[in-house]
Amino acid sequence: MSDAPTTVQPAASVREPITIGAHPRARRSVRRARALGGLLGFLVTVVLSLRAGVPAWDATARALIAGVVVHLAAWAIAVSVWKQLMLAELHELQARLERRAELARADA
């Protein structure tokens, strides 16, 4: 080992990834969509099954399965919608910052 001091390079600025879970409106909206999707899937299926003359036990089993499936579908749809909304927000922020920089250059 050498006695020369070691130079440490500063780490490149690490940016935190932007996630839907970190976005307060997105997180609430996705949770709400999942909950409503599951409940509506369950309720619609149980009502339609009972009106069709299916025994209550079978209607409940079908409704539980449908509730889970609709819950997952609502989650996937909500996440894909919020991905697009967050991208649009980022593009708008970038455009706003570019306009502000142009105004600062024009004033200087």
Question: What is the gist of this entry?
Answer:
The protein has helices at about 25-50, 55-105. With about 110 residues, it is mostly helical.
Task: Describe it.
By secondary structure, the chain is mainly α. It has one domain (24-107). Helices cover 74% and strands 0% of the residues. The longest helix has 52 residues, at 56-107.
What is the fold's blueprint, element by element?
Elements: H1 24-51, H2 56-107
Helix pairs in contact: 1-2
Amino- and carboxy-terminal Cα gap: 53 Å
Q: What ranges have pLDDT less than 50 throughout 5 or more consecutive residues?
A: none
Helix content: over 70%
What amount of the residues lies in strands?
Answer: under 5%
Structural class: mainly alpha
The overall strand count is: 0
**SSE order, one letter for each helix or strand:** HH
**Helix count, DSSP H or I runs of 4 or more residues:** 2
Integer count of domains: 1
**What can be said about the biggest beta sheet?**
none
Keywords, separated by commas or semicolons:
single chain, 108 residues, mainly alpha, 2 helices, elongated
